[in-house]
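hey so u asked for the seq, here:
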Amino acid sequence: MKKGIRFYIALWGAKAGSVLLKILRRNATFFPGKFALKVCPDFIKKIDKPKTIVAVTGTNGKTTVCNMIEDVLKDNNYVFIDNKYGSNIDAGVATTLIGGATIMGKAKKDLAVLEVDERSSPKIYPYLTPTYLVCTNLFRDSMMRNAHTEFISGLLTKYIPKDTTLILNGDDLIASNIAPSNKRIYFGIDKLDTDGETCENISRDIVVCPKCNTKLVYDYVRYNHIGKAHCPKCDFSSPEKDYLVTNLDLENKKMTLKSGNREEVYDLISDNIINIYNILTTIVVLKQIGLNSNQINESLKKQKIVDTRYSEENVNNIKIITHLSKGMNPIACSRVFDYVRKYKGNKAVILFLDDLHEAANGSENTAWQYDTDYEFLNNESIKQVIIAGARYLDGYVRLLIAGVDKEKIVHKRDELTAIDSLKLDGIDTVFILHDLYAMELKEAAKHKVENIIKSRGE
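ran it, structure tokens below
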């Protein structure tokens, strides 16, 4: 492809900008790509790209899946480019390709792992064809950002290149049906003892057949619209899985994965169903790249979920668990609330869900709170709920609507002051549930809880 002078001005200017930003110790993960796209709008199309490109998209889990894929690849001495420390929109992808190219725009590596924001599809896929595109799931998200699952799935279907092989969550009736003409690989988890016949959640984003509008029959429901379903009037149904977890042994942290006539056992680094899906997704992707089960499992065993997502420590026989709980994302919050209620022992829960943070573009719409299953926090094993931050009154009202005893609730504006009200009598675990933009607050809160526990033992 003829690149033209605008391409080279964009490439050389972006590379010079990257060097300058690094000298100034500034973030060079977004601006170079933004500059290149401004100078040459089809820059992503013109720059040479690695032979194999793995793109990961979806509402929840894409960052965790990318991190695990990259860590396993590194452990097995693969060389690749990625946008792990950069943006997952077009400018971030362009920056990654610039860093992985020579001064003449030739690709230096044969493999790329790219996290791609699903809403950026129109700006990326017309210019870049992933070898494999992973869709972890599609749920309702922030209404400001993602509108509705039908909008996002339609966007993906419209812009995903026809030559891309899809790796899809077959337990998700929305994600599994994007871009129907593309080659696809399905993964999923067989029916679990904890699955039910009815949905416990407030929201379920697909209840009628997309082909004939007949109400779907769910064979079992795991959560929200995740499970197995079929239409009683036409051929629409959950797909057969190419990779199926047939045995999930949470006690021994093992899972059995069946593909064709072959069964393989993998170790689990988490007992949370969300992370089990992330592990499963990672395994399927790595097998497509060419790693064998032993390579994958030995590397996965060395990993843990990153501390920004989950951390656990024991202080004087009381656990402190921090868990990411994305604000404006009702499904992500509901999954965490469900995990908390099912966690063994008595719990105190500290909630920092502030969708007014400037990095979140400051929402004024609290509707997502009413799609979130606060009812899961109305549980006998949860002895106290502390809610604080800019939305503390909204959260307090929502907890009351969920039926949580007001005597259990502490609601205050200042986050760290609120923790002074923590009661530890009979408590086995303190959960700190925090938003994506509250990492410093999370650390300060954890430190304060540690001190309260230690002072109690003196």
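The domain at 310-457 is CATH 3.90.190.20 (Protein-Tyrosine Phosphatase; Chain A). The first helix runs from residue 4 to 23.
lmk if thats what u needed
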